[in-house]
Amino acid sequence: MLIDINAHIGHWPFKQLKYNTCATLLERMNKFGVDISVVSNLNGVFYKNTQSANEELFDEIRSSKKFANRYIPFAVINPIYAGWQNDLEICVKKMGMKGICLYPLYHDYEISDPACVELVKRARDLGLIITFTHRIVDSRQRSWMDISKEWTMKDILPIIQEVNDAKYFVVNAANSMAVSDEEAALLKKTDMLIDTSGRSLSNLGEMIKKFGKDKFAFGTHSPVLDYLAGLLRIESLRESEADKSTKELLRSGNAKRILGI
Amino acid sequence: MSAAGLMLGAGIPDFGLKNSSGTSSYDIMKEAMKYRKIDSHIHANLFADSDPELLLDYADRLGIQKLVISRPITELDRPHQEFRDSNDIIIRVMKQYSDRFIGQFTVNPKYGKESLEEIKRCVGQGMIGLKVYYQVKINDKSFYPIIEKMIDLKMITLMHAYCGLGRGGYRTKYGNAFPDESVPEDFVDVARRYPEALLQFAHIGAGSDWEYECKILKDYPNIFVDVSGSNNEENMINFAVRCLGEDRLFFGSDNSYYQSVSKILSADLTEAQRKKIFFENYNSILRKGGYNVD
After folding, report:
1. Which of A182, A189, B55, B116 has the smallest C-beta neighbourhood within 10 Å, fewest atoms?
2. CATH level 2 (architecture), domain B36-288
């Protein structure tokens, strides 16, 4: 079984995306053997009122029976925008969303902002997974209207330190994964997964040694990145780096555990 | 039905995932290993994680048979001797693993006479192409004699390239970050002057604006493009094939190993197109000088 913990529908304002609907993403999943995708709506990165994006995602998933058991929707929530508490409630209790994606760089707040901390705590209490990304696109080729900053693992640590009993996804790990021994120990204790789509996982075998085999899961960062890099990083691991049971954890076992499925 | 409609009175949707199943048993390793590959752009002993044994480790796990290695000098205004020393490193590696590595020499075009002598020396040692960084732009006059020499040798010139439109997003205000970095328009300029030259525009996946690059290079058949670099955007290969055709693209990693293979596997290509990009296109270039590997 293969579970993708990092997929999106929606648009990017500065470049055309392919396979960015539930229907076309499903074609990719079927072609490459992906059973389930965690999916959120990229439009929420740019809408001031992100709830509109969550409604779009919900509507799209509900539009066809063939999507029903293939997608796990995550909401995009902006904790400094009006009504996010009510939006979160609706996303969880009426739309069945299992996690949230936060974009502090795009929504212009600090990860340690009290509003962000409050949202993460509330998500924790609801049993949701909280997702942060190193970046959405490669900033070197960004539009002049896009943001220039990208994150490293260290940039995400403050919220994990603040709310260390929540569940986290760190996706598209494209930049430094360097952390101190103390920080590594904290991450090991945290219920978190790093998806395999990011370029900084070029030595996944070493990363598993450093953070543990329960800390990684297959992810595509589709439709921004090519669909297969994350899978190739897993499947090309040698037996000495990841035995059969470890590869199963990476393909779906770790994702199942944290998603509760 | 809208989300709002569903919310009124509807229960919590059940995204029940029991019996969820993909309909394919895609075997990515089988796919990766079935294509012969020449990595047209990779560096040895240049930075961390680029020692030859590590390159071969990655190559073995991804089914890459031949690696075209180089060691350009990435600092500007370095003396000729440094370039010569760098070439010696590649010659040693190339000879140590002669069944896997194909060597490219590097020169500082600012030292014209010495560069031509160095090319002669390196070719004598079995090297088969030129890799240049941005000591000068590709269309700088000081580079003309070197291009002419490469034409005589029927060898390809791989030059670092960039498109600064998106770098910082400030091209229109400030120009490229490095004034002597070649942009697509510089390649076009020199391709027009030397239509018989074999030119390799480096790494459209290196963080530059690959749509801009492909559109500028579209009509110049002697400019080939390697798709290396850490950026593996989903539509890059499809767009490049549509813009440049299937015969002008080379597989390459620039030491970004996994995404260099996956971006080609995941693209909407025919088997024949994948074979061309992974192997045949670059081998055709090597064949022109009698250096093909099949």
Report:
1. A182
2. Alpha-Beta Barrel (3.20)
